[in-house]
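Subgroup meeting minutes
Present: P.N., E.W., G.H.
Scribe: E.W.

1. P.N. recapped why we're keeping a running log of single-chain structure predictions: easier to compare across weeks, and new members can see raw inputs and outputs side by side.
2. G.H. added today's entry (188 aa).
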Amino acid sequence: MLNKSKILKIKNKVLKGKNCTLKKITSLNCNKNYISWMNDKRVNRYLESRFKNFNQKKLKKFVADSNKDYSTILYGIFHKNIHIGNIKISINWHHGYAILGYLVGNLNYQGKNIGSESIKICTNICFKFLKLRFCLASIYSNNFSSYKVLKKNKFRLIAKIRKRYRIKADTYVDELTYRLNSPNYKIR
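Output recorded in log:
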């Protein structure tokens, strides 16, 4: 595991891509726009957080807890200084892998390659700086946008849990788990 000062340095990095910038979010970002995405059924329909009602206090606690945790890196996704989403790297230091979770919350920026670019930046962090073996991401099987984003980033389907998530009264969808190995990690 990296020492705490190196992890803190990575958490505080500002990472620039062509279409977006990733940077640490703070309580200042927990505003009405962020709250609105988290409570918008169109935005959160593929998130387990859709069962919660968010307010500023809850978001500030989530952000503060994430920023204190050395196994979590939470970046805001920004486009021209507008906070439009989040991406989280949950690290299992013992086993050497990360789980990615991501959301482009502002509907005006969905479908514009921002999610894909954010994942590419984060996998680079995971492999180049954190020296992890692989990254995982799980999605609802009817989340076609996430499927495209993961495929574009060369993630491979490794598992399917049939009918895991209820999306309507009697309708369930599968969970699909995807994996991307570090270029330096060879499965034997």
